[in-house]
Every structure is written in C-alpha cells, then in structure tokens.
Amino acid sequence: MSTTKQQQQPLGPSSWTTRRDEKHSRMQKVESLLKGKVLPTEQIVNALELLIRPGDRVVLEGNNQKQASFLSAALVQVDPEKVNQLHMIMSSISRPDHLDIFEKKIASKLDFSYSGSQSLRMSQMIEDNSIEIGSIHTYLELYGRLFIDLIPNVVLVAADKADRQGNLYTGANTEETPTIIEAAAFRNGIVIVQVNELVDEVPRIDIPGAWVDLVVESDRPYQLEALFTRDPRQIKETHILMGMMAIKGIYAKHNVQSLNHGIGFNTAAIELLLPTYGESLGLRGKICKHWALNPHPTLIPAIESGWIESIHSFGGEVGMEKYTAARPDVFFTGPDGSMRSNRALCQVAGQYAVDMFIGSTLQIDPEGNSSTVTSGRLSGFGGAPNMGHDPHGRRHDTEAWLNMMNGDGPLVRGKKLVVQMVETFQNGERPTFVDSLDAIHVGQEAHLPIAPVMIYGEDVTHVVTEEGIAYLYKAQNIEERKLALAAVAGVTPLGQAHDASLNERLISDGLIAFPEQLDIRRTDARRSLLAAKSVEELVEWSSGLYNPPSKFRSW
Amino acid sequence: MSTTKQQQQPLGPSSWTTRRDEKHSRMQKVESLLKGKVLPTEQIVNALELLIRPGDRVVLEGNNQKQASFLSAALVQVDPEKVNQLHMIMSSISRPDHLDIFEKKIASKLDFSYSGSQSLRMSQMIEDNSIEIGSIHTYLELYGRLFIDLIPNVVLVAADKADRQGNLYTGANTEETPTIIEAAAFRNGIVIVQVNELVDEVPRIDIPGAWVDLVVESDRPYQLEALFTRDPRQIKETHILMGMMAIKGIYAKHNVQSLNHGIGFNTAAIELLLPTYGESLGLRGKICKHWALNPHPTLIPAIESGWIESIHSFGGEVGMEKYTAARPDVFFTGPDGSMRSNRALCQVAGQYAVDMFIGSTLQIDPEGNSSTVTSGRLSGFGGAPNMGHDPHGRRHDTEAWLNMMNGDGPLVRGKKLVVQMVETFQNGERPTFVDSLDAIHVGQEAHLPIAPVMIYGEDVTHVVTEEGIAYLYKAQNIEERKLALAAVAGVTPLGQAHDASLNERLISDGLIAFPEQLDIRRTDARRSLLAAKSVEELVEWSSGLYNPPSKFRSW
C-alpha cells in the first residue's frame, strides 16, 4: 500500500450511493399511492411534493411542440413551503405556468433554450429579479449538459401511452423525451411521465419501462402545437421571388443534396416551388433529396412528386400522423407503422450531416451578425445556432460543402452553407438591416455575459433578400462582406448608403446576383407557381391523409 | 383539384413501402431458420447471405473498443457471388476481417471514422484500388449521416445479453449500439445482433426487443479492447512536468470545471497528479469536477480522493466493471447497478457541454494545425475533431469559456479551451513541430478532396510542451500565434529558428509561460508525485474493485 493513498483516502466521500439512497427513500414515500408504477391522476400534486426536494434540478419537458402540460400545471400547485428553490431546466418556455412556477417561488433558477410566446414576460421577470437565468442554450448543448453539469434529480416528461410496466409509446412526437429520461434513469434520478392513456399493451416501445419510475394518466392529452404548419394562402409574391432565386442561385448552383428548413414562409414557398419551378429547371432527383426537418405539410407536393428520398424529424406535426405513416419510404417510422422522431439525433444530423441550413431572422447588422432577440423580448435560441454555423469538427465532404472553399493552400477546407433569407423590411416597416443589433442592449439589460446573437456573420455564407443574393462566402475580407450585404439591403439605410456603382464589380466577382443575373423575371414570381395555394390543396395532394387542425381549415 | 397536382402526380413513386416490403420479403427467407428472433449460431453465414443483397448499405459495429467480431468474421465467409458491392459504414476499422471483406470483393465502398491498427494496410488497399473511400468522419457526423444520406439496409451490432424477445442488455459498453439500431429499426432496416449470452431475463433493457429482428449467440464473447488503460509505470518525468504546467497554467488559471481527457500518457499523468500536486495547490472541489470520458483506471485515485463529481462515458473499460458499479454517485449506472455509456450522447456533451478538450498529436505545423496522419498511415479521426474545436453553435457561458475572450466590442464571445499537449520530439527522434504536415501528402495520395487535418490551428487555444505553454488564444494575429508556438518548440528546427530575445515580450503579453513563470521547478517533476506508480497501486486505490486485464498485471 502506497503512503500516498493512506494520506489521501480520508478525503473521499463516506458514501458512493447517496443518489441511489435518496431516490430509494423518496420513492418509498409514494409507494402507498402507487399501483405498480401507476399513480392515480388526482394524486399528482401530492406525489410531486413527496418526490421533489428544495434545490433539486428538475427537467420539465417543454419542446417547442409537445408540452408536459399536466405536470407543469401540477408543479404550479405544490406548496412552496415544501418545494422551493428549484433549478428548472427546460428546452422551451411555452406556457404561462412555466413562469408561474417562478412567480410562486417554487423555482428560482432557469436554464433554457427558447422562450417563444413567453419572451416578453420572461424579460420582465428577469428585470424584477423574480427569475435567475443560468444560461440560454441551443437544444443540443442543453441536452449535453444533462450528462455533465446539469444532471437532473427529477424529470417530468410526456408520452402518448404507457402500459402498467411503464413502457412508453411516444408516437410521432418522440422529440426530446428519450434524451431527458436517459440522463435521469441512468443517474438515479426520478422519472415521472404523464401519458394520455394507460393501455394493456403499447403499440411499440419507444422507451423501456425499466427507465421509468412513475406514470400518471393526465386529465387531458398533452399540449401539442402545430408549429410547422404554414398556410400557403399567406405566401406572398415576394416569398416566391426569393424562393426562385434561392432554388436557382443557391440550391442548384451548389448542388445541395441535404438540408434543413425552418418554419418561415420563405422556405414554405421553396417547398411549394420545387414541384413546379424546380421541375421546370429539371432539378428533380438532382437536389434536395435528404432532409432534417419536421413533417411540414407544405412539403407534401414535393414528396408526392418524387422529389424527396428521406426525412428525419426533430418532432412530429399535428395532423400529419396518417400521412407520415403512409409514407414509410420517406419518413422514419416504427415497427408499428407510425412515425418516430428524435430531437437530439436530428439536431446532430442537422449540424453535421446536411449541406445547408436556411433560416430567417429579424435583424442583421452590417457584418452579417443576426438575431431574433429584439427590444424587450429575450426569445432564446432553440436549434438555429446549432444548425446555422459551420461545424469545425466536420471532416466529410460533399459537393456543396467543397463548393464553399475560398482561397488556396494545402489546408483549405469546405464549409457548410448557412443561408439567411429575409425581406429588407419586417412587415414593410422596420428595416431588417440595422447598424447594431437590439440583442446587444437586451443582453446588457438581462445581465447576460455575452450578447444573444443567433448566427454570427462569419458563419453566414449567403443572404437572400427580395433584391438579390449576397454570396458572402466569396468575400476575401470583411469589407467585401459588408459591400455584398449592403448591395442587397434595398432601401434600408444600409442599402441606401451603398454605392451602386460598385455593383458591376461585385457581380463579376460573384459576390452578388440580382434576379437578372439569375435569368429570373420578377414578374414571373406569381402565386400560380405554388404547387398548392391553400391548406385544402395540401389535403388534396395528400389524398386526404393530411388532417389539418381546425384553425387551418376554411372549407 | 388543382391542375398542378394532376400534372405532377404521375411523377411520384408507385409504392411508398418498398423498404418495408423488401424487409418483409428478406425476413421471410430466414423464417424457417429462426426460433422466435433467435438464430442458431452455426446458421449465421447462411442467414447473412439471405438477408443482405448486393449494393446494400451495411453498418458493422466496430467502436474503438467493442467489436461485433462474430458478425464480421461471418460476413467474410459469405459467398461473394451472392453478396457483393456492399457499401460498408463502420466507425472503426480495427480487425483484419474488416478489410478482408473488401479483399474478398464482398464490399467495395467504405465510410468510416478511425482505422487505428489497420491504417497501414488500409492505405495500401486504397492505393491498389481495392477499396473505395466515401469519406473519413468524426464519430458524431457519421452517426448523423445514418439518419440523412447513409441510412442503412442492414446493421450488424453486438450486445452482452439478449432474451428471446430480442431485448438487449449492453452492460457498460453500450457505446454506439443504440444509435446504429435506431437508424435501422425506424427505417425498415434489418437489425442483426450478436450476443455473448441468451438469457431468460436480461439484467436491464438497454434496447427494446421490438427494435431488433434477429439475435444470435456468438461462438465467443465479442472483442473488447482495454484502450483506455495506461500503466503508470510508463509515465515519465517529462509527462509529469507537462502535467504540472497544465494543472497550474491552464486548469487552475482558467477555472476549468468540465473536461474531456484522451488516452495519452500526458493526461494520465494529470489524472494521477490531481490528488497530490493538485491537492497541494488547494484545487480539490474547485476544478475538474465534471468529465466526459471513459472510466480511465488512472482516474481512480482522484475519484477516491473526492475530486470528481460526475463522469459520463463514451464506452466502458475492461476491468472497470465492478469499480464503476460501486461508484454510482460518479458514473452513469442503470437500475441494475451496472454502468451505461452512450457514445453519441457523450460526444454531444464532449463537444458542447465541457470547458476543455485536451489531447495529443503527432505533428503540428507552424500555424498550429495538427494531425495524427503520418506517412503511409491513414488513421482517420475518431472523436477528436468533434471535441477539439470551438463549437460556434454554443451559446451558454462558463467562466473558463469567457476567459478565452480576446478583443473588445459588443459581440465578442468566449471560446472552448482546446489544448494540445506534446513533447517536442516523438520518441526522442522525429520532431513534432514540422514545416508542413505529412497529412497533406497522404491526403493527395489517397485522392482525398481535403487534407486529413485532425485539429485546425485556429481552434487551438493552448499548446503545452516540456518547454512551456503557448497561450495561442491571446494571439492578436497569425504572426503572434506562430511566435508563441515557436517559443515552446524546443530544439526542433522550428524552435531553433525562433528569436529567443522576443520571449520577454511574449511572456509579458501573456502569450507564453515557461516553468519559471508558473513557479514550477523542473526538478520537482518526479515520479514520486504520482498518486499511483503502477497498475497494482491503482487496484489498491480501488480497494480491489478494479480488475485489470492480465497483460497489465505484473504481480
């Protein structure tokens, strides 16, 4: 025996099983309430008070779609004398009760990714010191931290069905549930699952029952938002013009095989232009074959026309259940036939395995930095920064990636296509191109250590506006990048300050292209080019398999 | 009905279930061989010939540790007249039979991550055109592609135990098995699993049986390498000196809370210095609390001394099974008590959720680019580039990350610590610092579109040699980066060309530090500082729980 060891040994902990013992002791307290793993619905508040301790790290599932709404409503009702100082970890702050937890002093600290509809109230609560922000994350880094320094004590998640052994069926909206549960189940955390329905046998097992401690049938189905449904009726001719430019001047030019689309009307327009304008260019089977995205209804015509080989999804989409189940050659589906998604793996794929990310934003500064954080709204990040950057850890090549090479030398490498697609004015009023991002001021007000920038200019390869395309990856220096951006900034102050006499050189250097250079007539950008002009037509394309939520029905 | 739809409709495929139908038809051919999901051991070659078709994409599990060795040996024996032109996807080429598959013309194309011990033969086969390389990847991007453009037809994986319903127990070496299976099971691919043992009930369910099509008991346990075991006897005083510099000049200086260590002797030295030298600096409980790494035996003394709060692992380590099971407060363990790893999630955490990556390399060029690819050896990447770069998608902050800020302005952000730790000469002979990386030439020979660089200079924040530390993140431009590097390059040609009169300025600018600046005496770097000096002492520290493989036993 070394003397070193004898000196050091007493420093170590006296027990190595504190987490396991703690879990065991808490579970014993609810044992009398349970039948196997099943908790009666009306006992949930009582059970949460027995299972959660002050200061716990608690993950509450709130994707941008699926919400553990029964459990969040129950958490608001616990006695703050018994349960307080919680450190909440939530990928999305989407419901009023998510913030009520803090106002009622049940929780004090928050690590999150996205706050969407609650961003205004969140900003106010930060100002009032009623909420302490740890950090704002992308989804993937938040998931990573669940295994490093944000390991949870308790997780509250949602699934469609469970059997009495706790085996879970998530259906199409698998989303982040398996990742959250894995972080707790394998570290002696407590896994509490609300399910829409208890059944004798689940249609398929998405998560094994042994990973789950407690299931509870919710009083109503979990909240699920139709976040990725865009009504074609709202697609304007500006979107169509920009879509045509993107298809010809980016997708076809760089031979983009695999990509992610966000939820904007710009990309919805592209989806609906592929079977018409794209077809007329002879691009079917040549571009846009592999996708990382949710089952967008606006992609139905392209799928039905044979454009799409595969789609892997972060989550599902309300109303697309029957359609995706009927297209297993395209979507990931389980042995039971229904879709399966996986937010963590799709974010990995969206970061590392696709040629292109294309998204929209609210503000862009002269160097191409952008953010959706505007005055008073701390909306967070979601998944965009993860997919909207050039991953330096990527080592495999594709034609599109190699196309972004700029410069000489033996170590030059390719780059991911990161495209921003914006109108020069938001709602025809506020300029998208600004001298300085609001995010800087908002970050300072919220005492964030760095400004909440969504995508940094150095990562952006293209910007598309209704004026034209800036090929930023071709810029040899920051001055060229600024010039190319200003050239497509229209009549915003940035655009008006631009010296148009430089455009000829910028065009010949390949730094910008207007519709004329792309051989596109502005007058050709008509709504008649859309493969579907309404939700009703999407339903027709799907042969009745797509079942849109009632708010999208007008017939 | 829109006319557009009527025009487009005929373009779509006539069936949307070709993959499901194909799987069904192949599975029918082996039905008579199976008892439930169980295939008799001796039928494996026959079954593979019936289940795999020419041109299939086949994933063969070969982590850097666990190998589906029974299945790879069987695949070599199939008739190339029946099964050929396979496109193999393998994270690691580790066994001779992995390349025999190509020599026997069963497979033709390969996408992979790491080739380790087979790198020499691989290079020769590429030269002989007996293998076509798709791309070389990091692990995580290869996993991502399994859901995008490398979706598999058949996967061949390994687990410890299965029951007759196909439920799998992987034990500590869960590794990449769940990720590979998910890509196939939810896309009508065929999942074939070799198991060491068929049992009536598995200790825990790591992968649900419904995701598995066929299990076969292997003739012997799967191959498992003790890749992360470093014998403290081989740690030299140079390693110890460098370790002391790293602890004081990097870990403590930047307050590193979370990190990854690779398999080198340099980092093994650091692990063994924490409970001695680190303790003397009062650093316990202050740094190195959260880890993304395999259960390194050399970390046992630090764990036992109370340094480590959590470890999430890519895989397991031979001999560490009982130890990890007895330390559930530190390691991720399942409801059954044994460890669980997850290579994909740990790579996500290692990329996004830790303060620091520290690794070693074989060559560094004057700008800090590095590679382990040297003449004639196309060794690939593994996970290092994924963890050894600054992820631009990261938005959360930590003290260490903010410490890397360099420059002013409202949009300045932090950076991940990426540390290279190298002796100036490899084995005392070949200089580590070179004018130009061998990787450039090797890449050209193998017709790779870009040079196989492991870590790019712009991502490296620190380089540690036996001479001192270069704080590259402080460099304002590439010239300063080159000077700082040259200053620690010793008597290599690069180091000898350096003008030592500049060092005073480099020191005062914080660009370099020698042991003197860190208040470290070279003569203090003695082996007596190691908390364990042999594998035997590691076993003692573990109270006999660590059970090293026989090749590491000398007592």
From TrEMBL, chains A, B:
GO terms for molecular function: acyltransferase activity. Pfam families: Mal_decarbox_Al. Its EC number is 2.3.1.187. Residues 1-17 have a biased composition (Polar residues). Transmembrane segments: none annotated. Keywords: Acyltransferase, Transferase. It comes from the Bacteria. The keyword tRNA-binding does not apply. Residues 1-24 are annotated as: Disordered. This is Malonate decarboxylase alpha subunit. It comes from Paenibacillus xylanexedens. The lineage of its organism: Bacteria, Bacillati, Bacillota, Bacilli, Bacillales.
